[in-house]
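USER: For my understanding, would you kindly supply a protein sequence with its C-alpha cells?

ASSISTANT:
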Amino acid sequence: MKIAVTGATGRFGSQAVQLLQSELSEQDQVIALARNIDKAKTMFDDAIEVRPGAYDSVETLAESMHGVDKLLFISSQPNPDFPRMTQHQNIIEAAKKADVQFIVYTSFPHADKVDNPLSGDHKQTEALIQASGIAHAFARNNWYLENDLPFMNKIVSDGVAVYSAGSGKVGWALEVEYVRAAVKLLQMENPKEIYEFSGRAHTYEELAETVARVSTKPLKIEQVSDSEYKQSLLDSGFDAGTADLFVVFQQLIRNGDLADVQNDLYTVLDDDVPNFEESVKTVLDID
C-alpha cells in the first residue's frame, strides 16, 4: 500500500509522514508531497519517497500521486494570490486522475453546519470530495492548543490573560493528537465518513487558570471587547493582518462554533489522549 501526504513539510504533514513510517509495514510506502523538494529531503530519511506537491498544476500532482492508494489531504493555508479553493480543487482533480482510492481530509468542526470565515472553504472542499466518487473520511479537527501559545505565554510572562471570546468553549487538543487520529483513519478498514475530533470543552478562563496553576504565576483576567483585544495584540508586536485573524478566532469561539465537542478523538485513539493540564504543560514545555 502506498500512502501520500500533502503539505509534507508543514508541521502537521511532517508529523504525519514520520508517524506513518513508524506504524506501517515494510511492504508499505510513505510518499511525501512537497512544494520544496530539497527541504523535504533534508527532513525525511531515504525510506520516504519525496515527490513534487505544489498545488498549482493538476497534471504534476496527478503524476506525483501515480500508484498512490490513500491520500492524507491536509487543508492548505488561505492565500490571497492563490485561493485555497483553487488549490483544493487541483488536489481533488489530481486524485481522481491518479485513481486514488481513499482520502482523509483535515476539515473544520461541523463544517456543513456552521457559518464563519474559516468554515466556508472546508464545506466546499468536503462537497467536492463527496462529488468525486472517491471513498473518504473527514477529520474535522477542532482547535490546536498550540494556536493559543501567545495567550499562554502572556500569562507566564506578565500574569495577564486577555481575550474577547467571553464564555465560549473550545475543544482544545494537542496538534499531535489530531495527527495520530488522521493516521489511524488511513489504516482503518471501514472508517465512517465524518469524525468530529476534539478534546474536552473548556473556556479561556479555564485555560488561563490552568496555565497560571502549572506555571505558578499570578493571574489577572481581562475580558475585553474585540477592538481592545486587537489593540492588545498590536501592542504585543502582532501585525494588523494577524491581529485581525485572531479577532476572528475569538468571535467564532464566542459564537459557540467550537463548543460542540464529540468523543471521536478518544474513540479512535482508544482513550490515549492526555488530559487538559498535561496538554498545557506540553505546550509550555513544563515537566
Notes: Residues 144 and 175 are 5 Å apart (CA to CA). The longest strand covers residues 135-141.
